[in-house]
Structures are given as structure tokens and as C-alpha cells.
From TrEMBL:
Transmembrane segments: none annotated. It comes from the Bacteria. Coiled coil: none annotated. Belongs to the CdaR family. Residues 497-554 form the PucR C-terminal helix-turn-helix domain. Residues 306-444 form the CdaR GGDEF-like domain. Residues 6-125 form the Purine catabolism PurC-like domain. This is PucR family transcriptional regulator. Gene3D superfamilies: PucR C-terminal helix-turn-helix domain (1.10.10.2840).
């Protein structure tokens, strides 16, 4: 870095008088130099040394002071004024202005040619630039060597941190920490919270510095800290991840972002892109193979145990253990997204990020219980096989799901997930059967409760009996003859007679309790009940009629899920 003090050491400037800001000379860096006369406008750049003869200011000290003020506002490094032709001394108000703004103001003898000063400064700038380029090239080569040596991410980040004197973290494009197992669990949770709150990553809208070299970075202000977001780009130009640089608290971003650090971060982003390309190719292949295997296992894609076992051993899965299948489906991701204060990301990007977190929490829950897990996902539906040992599948699935719900409640407080749990696998063929049971239980649970619900296959015995009824043609005709008038009336009038009957039957015919549960006046409820009787030609006082109507509604609800509203 070339400073004002470095330039003043040259013999050419031996006769220069520093009027103000002499103590700043060792800290004020120089990046440019030019000769400027009135007006300044936008011709002066930051960290530029300005040379002037003050032409046009001979009879107007105030005009020269205004000129000095314009140069100061341009964030120039210093102002050198040649006296002896147009002005013969510096106005007192100009000196006071420079002192007040901690600005370097110098007097240059008229005999010293500006061309010589410009030549000398440019020569020094070129020398400095060459040194920085050589250092930058060495760092670039060192980073590439780390890639060729197949060093891990921790070594890459440690090397970059040594060069820029700041802590850095690598994430994917959603803000999820890469190689998160190297960080403390508390820190990882804090980071997840920043991502969920929309603090990280930020949309590329805020240039961190007016320098064109630095406008590709984004600056995030968080709790009195400046965080620099550096995109790690794909070939398409879109970010595949981010480097987050935590600038030390005592340094402001513009001071931290020197050209040297900027070049280092650019090289770092390029190197990390290479590292990610190699890692992603390996991980995506591994995850796809594992996910495809679990999906085939669930859907009966293997003919024999030996065929499945040969694939499982390559993927480090153990099929000889006892497993139970669990299927989960988040119900309200869309509404949660719409409630967010910051909606910078598209819903699809946010949804993928949330599903990633859910899968991660499932893996963590299994790990904390010391159990094996096999997992796959189809859109939003997550299918997993959880190892169980001495406990029943009911007890063990409860422990597992309790951990997930507790942790997700901290990350996504209002998320609703429906769960279906199958029975324990006893034989190889039970992998498919347990999946079928879990999916059936999930669908039945969603019919009965639209919100957070866990349904075990063992709890669906009544529903399975009802489902068998729908397969009988005569039973289906009876059910539809009974229920169809109510369905049509509800569709036309939006009165929910079916829900009214369900509540009435639940409270064993108690009109007062039913009215309170539905927030209806007693007379309104009685009108609905009479309407049900008139439409169905059934009496709600007749136990047999009540049984038929209750059976028809329950069968219609269950059968509608699996048989398209019971219609062929």
C-alpha cells in the first residue's frame, strides 16, 4: 500500500510544505493522482492525490475554500497546491476547513513540474501494484495446490483466514453451513436461526464499497458487526454458495476491503467453486444413490434380499436390523412463507431450504438416539426407516418424533407435520409392507386432523374395516344414497351439515354442547338438524338411523381418500 508519507520521501518533493494533516500521512493510502482545476464536480476519486494551481481563485478566497471542500467531500487522499502564480498563500478558512476534516493539505513550490510529480507517483503505484499482483498470484497458486492435494474445507478456510485476518464461513446458496460437523452445536443452531430469520444470505442489492472491484460483494450489518457476503458462482453466473467474512469489530468495511483483500477473496471464491464442484458431484451421486435405494426398498423394487443387500452394503446400510417405516408431510409451508417479513427468496428456494433442515433434524434425532436411519424424499413427502431395538415401534417412534418436533419448534415454530407410522419389519418383504402401512396411516390421519397429527397403522383398524365396505358395490350405493343429499347441499349452501352431524353425534345428541362447540345459536343448530332429517329421510332420534348416517359419513370420508369420492 502506497501512502502519502511514502511519496513525500522522494527527493522531488523535498521542498513540499505539509500545512494540515501531517500525522495522517503514514495512514492515508494513495491509489490515483491527477491535476484538477475548478470545477471539481465528480472528477476526483477516492484516495486520489489532487494537484492544482488554483487558477480562477486569484481574487476570491471563498471560491478556493469551496474548491477545497469539494475535494474533501470526494474523499481524496490529499491536495497539493502550487503557489506563486494564481494564489500566493492559502486562505485561513481553507486551512481551518482542512484541519476540521482531518485532511492533508500541502504547498508545492511553483518550480516543481506537475508532470514530474505525476510520473513519480505513477511509478510508485506501479511498483506497489506489481508487488500486490505477485502476492496475489502466489496466494492463487497456493489455493490451487490445496485443491490438487485434495485438502478438506477446513484447511482451505484456515489458509484464507490467515491471509485476510478475519473469520470466514462457507454455506450453500440457501445459507446452510458446509461441513457443519466441524462447528459447535450451539453455533450451528445460532447460524440456522439467522438463516430462518432471513438475515443470511441477503439479496445482492447493497454494494459494500463504491470501488467497482468491490461492488460484487454484499455488506450485512448485524448486531454492530459487519459481515461481508462473497458469492461463489457457478458457470451460469448464479451463486451456488457464499463465503461469509466476519470483519473484526474495530474495523469498518471500507477500511477492511483493501485491493489486496479483494483479490484474495476473488481467488478464494474461484477456488471454493472448484472444491464445491468436486464435492457436489460426489455428494449428489451418493445422496441420489441412497435416496433411490430407499425408494426402491419401500416400493418393492428388489426381487430378493441378496439383491438388495448387495446394494445396501455399498451404501453402508444394514438391512438385517429391525426397522419401522415413518412417512412425514409438512402441511403449511406455503402459509409460513407468506407470513415471513422478508420474502427475498422465491418460495421454491425457501421450501427446499426448509426441507433440507427437516431432513437434517431427522438425521440428528436418529443419531442422538444411537439408531440407524435410511431416508428418501419425494417432493415434500419424507419417507424414512428408523432402527428399533428393545422398545416397541410405538414407543421408539414417539421418542424419535418428539425430538424432531421439539427441535423444529425452535427453528420453525408454526410448522405442522403429519406423520404416519407403519409396523415393525420382521422380514425383508416387510420393508414394502411397512411403507404401505405408514402411508395409509398418514392419509387416514390427514382426513381426521388437518393439523399436526401422528397416526399409527395399528390405530386405523376401524378405518380399514370401513375401507373394505367401499369395495362392495351394494354398500357403496347405500352409502352414497345416504350421504349424497348432504354433500350436494353443503356444496351449494356452504352450511356444513356433515360437520354439524359429526359434532352432534360426538356430543351424544346434546344440543347445548353441540351448539357451543360450533359457535351456533340453539335455534340455528335445530334448523340444521331438521334439514339433515329432511334431506336424508332419517330420524336423528332413531338409533338405527343414527348408526347408518354415522357409518355412511365415516366410510365416505375414508373411502373418498382412496377411491375418488367413492365414484368409479
Amino acid at each position: 500500500m502506497l501512502t502519502v508519507a511514502d511519496v513525500l520521501k522522494d527527493d522531488l518533493l523535498h521542498g513540499v510544505e505539509v500545512v494540515t494533516g501531517e500525522k495522517l500521512a503514514t495512514k492515508k493510502k494513495i491509489q490515483w493522482i491527477s491535476v484538477i482545476e475548478l470545477p471539481v464536480e465528480n472528477f476526483v476519486r477516492k484516495n486520489e492525490v489532487v494537484l492544482t494551481t488554483a487558477i480562477g481563485c486569484e481574487q476570491d478566497p471563498h471560491l478556493f475554500t469551496q474548491f477545497v471542500e469539494d475535494v474533501i467531500e470526494s474523499e481524496a487522499a490529499a491536495l497539493m497546491v502550487a503557489l506563486g502564480r494564481f494564489i500566493f498563500d492559502i486562505p485561513r478558512e481553507a486551512i481551518e476547513l482542512a484541519e476540521k476534516n482531518h485532511f492533508i493539505l500541502m504547498i508545492v513550490p511553483w518550480e516543481v513540474r506537475f508532470a514530474n510529480i505525476v510520473e513519480m507517483v505513477m511509478k510508485e503505484l506501479n511498483i506497489t501494484a506489481n508487488k500486490e499482483r505477485e502476492k496475489s498470484e502466489k496466494i492463487q497458486q497456493d489455493l490451487l495446490n490445496l485443491i490438487l492435494m485434495e485438502r478438506d474445507l477446513e484447511d482451505l478456510l484456515a489458509y484464507i483466514e490467515e491471509q485476510i485476518y478475519a473469520k470466514i464461513y462457507l454455506t450453500d446458496r440457501f445459507g446452510n453451513l458446509m461441513e457443519s460437523d466441524q462447528y459447535a452445536r450451539d453455533f450451528e443452531q445460532q447460524w440456522k436461526q439467522l438463516v430462518l430469520e432471513g438475515v443470511l444470505p441477503t439479496k445482492h442489492i447493497t454494494p459494500a464499497n463504491q470501488d467497482p472491484f468491490m461492488q460484487k460483494f454484499d455488506l450485512i450489518h448485524y448486531e454492530k458487526r459487519d459481515i461481508l457476503q462473497v458469492p461463489v458462482l457457478q458457470i451460469s453466473g448464479e451463486a451456488q454458495g457464499y463465503l461469509f467474512v466476519f470483519i473484526p469489530e474495530h474495523i469498518k468495511a471500507p477500511s477492511f476491503l483493501t485491493h489486496n483483500r479483494t483479490h484474495i477473496l476473488e481467488h478464494a471464491a474461484t477456488t471454493i467453486a472448484l472444491w464445491l464442484s468436486r464435492k457436489n458431484a460426489i455428494e449428489e451421486t451418493k445422496l441420489r444413490l441412497r435416496s433411490d435405494f430407499v425408494e426402491e426398498l419401500a416400493k418393492g423394487g428388489f426381487q430378493t434380499y441378496e439383491q438388495a443387500q448387495s446394494r445396501a452394503s455399498l451404501l453402508q446400510y444394514q438391512l438385517n436390523l429391525a426397522y419401522v417405516c415413518i412417512v412425514g408431510l409438512p402441511e403449511n409451508l406455503k402459509s409460513l412463507y407468506e407470513k415471513r417479513e422478508q420474502t427475498i427468496d422465491s418460495f421454491e428456494r425457501w421450501r427446499k431450504s426448509m426441507l433440507y433442515y427437516m431432513e437434517e433434524e431427522m438425521l440428528y434425532a436418529a443419531q442422538s438416539l444411537g439408531r440407524k436411519i435410511m431416508l428418501t424424499r419425494d417432493e415434500e413427502m419424507i419417507t424414512l426407516y428408523l432402527e428399533i431395538q428393545h422398545q416397541t415401534e410405538h414407543e421408539y417412534a414417539t421418542d424419535f418424533l418428539d425430538i424432531i418436533d421439539r427441535r423444529l419448534n425452535n427453528l420453525l415454530p408454526d410448522v405442522y407435520i403429519s406423520w404416519g407410522i407403519g409396523k415393525r419389519k420382521e422380514r425383508f418383504e416387510d420393508f414394502q409392507e411397512s411403507y404401505r402401512q405408514a402411508k395409509f396411516a398418514l392419509q387416514i390421519g390427514r382426513v381426521k386432523d388437518k393439523h399436526h397429527h401422528r397416526t399409527w397403522f395399528e390405530q386405523t383398524r376401524v378405518d380399514r374395516v370401513l375401507l373394505q365396505l367401499t369395495k362392495n358395490v351394494e354398500m357403496r350405493e347405500i352409502i352414497m344414497d345416504t350421504i349424497e343429499p348432504l354433500v350436494q347441499y353443503d356444496e351449494e349452501r356452504q352450511m356444513d351439515l356433515i360437520g354439524t352431524f359429526v359434532a352432534f353425534n360426538q356430543y351424544r345428541g346434546n344440543v347445548s354442547q353441540t351448539a357451543r362447540s360450533l359457535n351456533l345459536h340453539r335455534q340455528s343448530l335445530l334448523y340444521r338438524l331438521r334439514k339433515i332429517e329432511s334431506l336424508t329421510n332419517l330420524s336423528l332420534n332413531d338409533p338405527d338411523h343414527l348408526f347408518l348416517l354415522d357409518l355412511s359419513i365415516k366410510t365416505w370420508r375414508v373411502g373418498g381418500v382412496f377411491h375418488g369420492e367413492l365414484k368409479d
